[in-house]
Amino acid sequence: MNRRSLLLLTLPLVIAGCSDAGNSTGQAGSTAEKPPSPVSIVIMKKQEQPITRVLPGRAVAFQTAEVRPQVAGMIKQVVFNEGNEVKAGDLLYKIEDSSYAASLAEANASLAKAEASVPNAQANVVRYEKLVNSGATQIEFDNAKVTLLQAKADVEQAKAALQSAQINLSYTEIRAPFDSVTDISKVDVGNIATANQTTALTTLRQLDPIYIDLTESSTNLLELRAAIAAGRLKGNPDQADMRLKLEDGTDYNKTGRLDMSELAVSETTGTYQIRAQFDNPDNLILPGMYVRATVTLGMESGYLLPQRAATRNARGELSAKFVTAENKVETRLFQNAQVSGNNWLVDTGINEGDKLIVDGFQWIADGAAVKPVEATVGEDGLVVEADAAKQPTQ
């Protein structure tokens, strides 16, 4: 066999050897360890934070009055514009008053007649007093005194009738009892109104200030009282700061104050009611509107867990994932947590400087190796890594 034939026989063996070497290298690369997964973390720092509650509520007029006539008669005028503001004392309706004016004139005449009889009765008393036992009997003197008393009583009766006639005449002008906004008028000019009728002529509502009725669970009430009793909660809940979010999601620019709260829990819903008062100069909030109120009850010291970083397990326990000193993932459970804005506030189970995972933890199991990247969580709930925050905007 010549050298050329020998070379041709050995060439396939060399190529096969190279192929096996390549496969061996690929298998070794596939078994290499994966690099630690990067996760965004927030360094825990204990500090005082506000304790807040977000409560559903509904707007209620500060004052409401259903306007009804106090005397009968035909509606002569409807003075107000429906849906407009009126001031206390403004004229709303005018009832035909000719019969009431006549009654007032008659009462004035009756009073004048009664007053005219008093001087004559007084003179008779003086005269009979001088003539007693010398031309007049004691009985005549006593009768004169009785007549005087009756004349004075007639005057007082006439005065009362006159006052009643004046009141009835004044009732023909129906006026607003307080600053308010008018509703639709239920009657028109020419309609007949009766005293204290069932149907209201219109309804008045005072909208500035305005009440917001809020509902809180009895469970939260017990937790709040426990926090106050333990001295964890600083501040006076009766002076709680309240802010509103309207139905369209916008923030109301006025701060409210606690007005009252019920001292009983509803037997059907297990809730109790809180009433807040807000200034409403532009009548932006109307009765019946649904709102959400954020109530700041006080301050408590603890660690903030952003809601995006915390979940609840099947037993309802709050849990969050942390990075250990060995850069491994661990899950911690928290029995007691308070709401503080968009965060949970806890005071146990965390130490100063612990690393809370705020992003990237959803697909990482406990014990997995990770690479922590310091970040912050904005008010909008978005995570911003520290390095990205330092970069200048383009």
Care to describe what's here?
The chain has 394 residues and is of the alpha+beta class. The chain has 3 domains: 41-55 and 221-284 and 299-390, conserved putative lor/sdh protein from methanococcus maripaludis s2 fold (Beta Barrel), CATH 2.40.420.20; 69-96 and 172-199, RNA polymerase II/Efflux pump adaptor protein, barrel-sandwich hybrid domain (OB fold (Dihydrolipoamide Acetyltransferase, E2P)); 98-170, Helix Hairpins, CATH 1.10.287. Helices cover 28% and strands 35% of the residues. The chain has 5 helices and 21 strands. The chain has helices at residues 3-30, 98-131, 138-170, 218-229, 386-390, and strands spanning 37-43, 47-67, 73-78, 85-86, 91-95, 173-175, 180-182, 192-193, 202-217, 241-245, 257-261, 271-278, 290-306, 310-312, 318-323, 329-334, 338-340, 343-346, 355-359, 370-377, 383-385. Strands 2, 4, 7, 9, 10, 11, 12, 13, 17 and 18 form a 10-stranded antiparallel β-sheet that branches. Strands 1, 14, 15, 16, 19, 20 and 21 form a 7-stranded mixed β-sheet that branches. Strands 6-5-3-8 form a 4-stranded antiparallel β-sheet, with no helix packed on it. Helix 2 (98-131) packs antiparallel against helix 3. It is elongated and about 140 Å long. Mean pLDDT is 82; it is low at 1-22, 24-31 and 389-394. Residues 104-172 form the Multidrug resistance protein MdtA-like alpha-helical hairpin domain. InterPro entries: MdtA-like_b-barrel, MdtA-like_BSH, MdtA-like_C, MdtA-like_HH, RND_pump_MFP. Keywords: Coiled coil, Signal. Residues 1-21 form the signal peptide. Residues 304-362 form the Multidrug resistance protein MdtA-like C-terminal permuted SH3 domain.
